[in-house]
Write a structure and sequence with these properties.
It is a single chain. This protein has about 300 residues and is of the alpha/beta class. The protein is built from 10 helices and 11 strands. The protein folds into 2 domains: about 5-90, Orthogonal Bundle (Arc Repressor Mutant, subunit A), CATH 1.10.10; about 90-299, D-Maltodextrin-Binding Protein, domain 2 (3-Layer(aba) Sandwich). The protein has helices spanning about 5-15, 20-25, 30-45, 60-90, 105-120, 130-140, 185-190, 205-215, 230-240, 285-299; strands at about 50, 55-60, 90-100, 120-130, 145-150, 160-175, 195, 220-225, 245, 260, 270-275. Strands 3, 4, 5, 6, 9, 10 and 11 form a 7-stranded mixed beta sheet that branches. The protein has a two-stranded antiparallel sheet with strand order 1-2. It has a two-stranded parallel ribbon with strand order 7-8. Strand 3 (about 90-100), helix 5 and strand 4 form a beta-alpha-beta unit. Helix 1 packs across helix 2 (about 20-25), helix 1 (about 5-15) crosses helix 3 and helix 5 crosses helix 10. The two termini are about 55 Å apart. Pfam families: HTH_1 (PF00126), LysR_substrate (PF03466). InterPro entries: LysR_HTH_N, LysR_subst-bd, WH-like_DNA-bd_sf, WH_DNA-bd_sf. One of its GO terms (cellular component) is protein-DNA complex.
Length: about 300
């Protein structure tokens, strides 16, 4: 393997075309520099310089070799920089899983933007997934962080849960639904209409919150069609296939034919949770959590 130090000596002499000036730049005496260049030429099997008592010029092989030597040194410098950033937790890879409805929240977009601006050398992978699967993905390492609406089972110790609070639920109604003309709607009024949700086998944390809300109020749920994306649910509402209960951030989907109305129940909300492994949290995970904490304090 070529000695990076010798390559650096070669590059300096090639730039100066003078051994004396190159030696001064390298803080070396000239004889040791000359010996190092001769040793590099022996390793390579060809001369790099034509030398006379007055001039130093690159040989044809030296000119051809020069850009490759420079590229090796540049890559070595970059490698050293990246290694330092990896050690400091400012570079690397971070996988973030999230429930589809969370992607519409301001906190989600602001956190992603702030983190990417602060840590440009981190490759951030975003994975949309049902809340129920985020827990297992965090445990087995497929993702580093999960943004979920579903609490893990009580008693588990493998995942640390940070609650960012509840987001109010609003009713998504077809604009020609009589309820759309009201300032707010009650859950009892909604229970008379088919309820559009994520599929029962999807593992939606939002579904669980809504079903708990109906049970708490002793109200029946009229099953309606289902959609696997929050956008699909809103499209079904616009088509008049039923009503939906969605996080307040969904109002950013201003689809024609859909009206959003607040619920009369102030406790109707969807949780926003961050899941991380309890043991062995990386520096990048800690950095991400730091960004979240700063944004929360600014609110």
């Amino acid at each position: 393997m070529l000695d990076l130090r010798k390559l650096r000596y070669f590059l300096t002499v090639a730039e100066e075309l003078h051994f004396g000036r190159a030696a001064l730049r390298l803080h070396l005496a000239q004889p040791p520099l000359t010996r190092q260049i001769s040793a590099l030429e022996s390793e390579l099997g060809f001369r790099l310089f034509d030398r006379t008592s007055r001039t130093v010029t690159l040989t044809a092989q030296g000119r051809h070799f020069l850009p490759y030597a420079r590229a090796v040194l540049d890559q070595a410098s970059l490698t050293e920089v990246i290694a330092g950033k990896l050690a400091a937790g400012t570079a690397g890879q971070l996988a973030l899983g999230y429930a589809s409805s969370i992607a519409l929240s301001d906190l989600f977009s602001q956190t992603i933007q702030a983190f990417a601006q602060r840590f440009p050398d981190v490759q951030l992978t975003l994975v949309e997934s049902a809340s129920s699967s985020l827990y297992s993905q965090v445990i087995d390492g497929r993702i580093d962080i999960g943004m979920s609406r579903l609490l893990p089972e009580s008693g588990q110790t493998e995942v640390q849960v940070l609650s960012l609070g509840g987001e109010p639920l609003v009713a998504a109604l077809s604009s020609d639904n009589p309820l759309a003309s009201q300032d707010e709607v009650t859950l009892a009024e909604l229970s008379a209409h088919p309820l559009i949700q994520f599929p029962a086998d999807y593992g939606s944390g939002l579904n669980e919150s809504i079903e708990h809300l109906y049970r708490r109020n002793g109200l029946p749920m009229r099953p309606g069609p289902s959609g696997r994306q929050i956008t699909s649910i809103i499209a079904l509402v616009a088509a008049g296939r039923g009503v939906a209960l969605v996080p307040q951030c969904t109002k950013t989907l201003a689809k024609k034919g859909v009206t959003y109305r607040p619920l009369a129940d102030p406790e109707a909300c969807a949780q926003l949770l961050i899941l991380t492994r309890t043991q062995g949290r990386s520096l990048l995970v800690e950095a991400f959590m730091g960004v979240v904490d700063e944004l929360l304090r600014e609110r």
